[in-house]
Amino acid sequence: MIVMRGSDSSCDPSSRGTIGGAAPALVFLALMVVATAAIAARSAIVRAAPVTAWAYASLGMPVNLRGLSIDGVRATMAEPGEGGRELLVTGEIVNLREVETLVPSLRLALLGEDRRELYLWTAREPKSRLGPHERVAFRAGLATPPPGVRDVLVKFAAPGDKASFTE
Questions:
Q1: d(CA 96, CA 131)
Q2: Which of 47, 50, 94, 116 is the most buried (most CB within 10 A)?
Q3: What is the CA 162 to chain-centroid distance, rounded?
Q4: Does residue 131 lie within any of the structural domains?
Q5: Is residue 164 helix, strand or coil?
Q6: What residues contact residue 140 under an 8 Å CB cut-off, 6+ apart?
Q7: Whether residues 127 and 47 fall in one domain
């Protein structure tokens, strides 16, 4: 009969759980690495799978692939006289990048109380390219907008959007 004595922990029944106990920590570490990679590479992920953009936005990390933003949008209604009302939409386009960036046309939508689009038009960009961190003002007008307009939504037009251009 052989009796083992000493400090060999491999035979100690209390040490058997250490390998099994490390598994949850390793799984947690792997999840942290994957999450960090998903955050760091979010632009590449959204570029490859645009449907994932909503997930990042819902987590407070919107992805801006264009490198442009629209700021300071104001909509005012003017009464020019005989012609009726005129809607004037103004704001700025801002280049968020360190490099020159192409500027797409603007897509303007007039929304009703129920947030449905009542009218849609496209306005030409005020400048085709913006330098690093450059800002440019835009202005778009619409004579005689439809009744019931509650809000104006200004976005960049997607390639291939078909709409009439206005000044």
A1: 10
A2: 94
A3: 22
A4: yes
A5: coil
A6: 88, 89, 90, 106, 108, 121, 123, 166, 167
A7: no
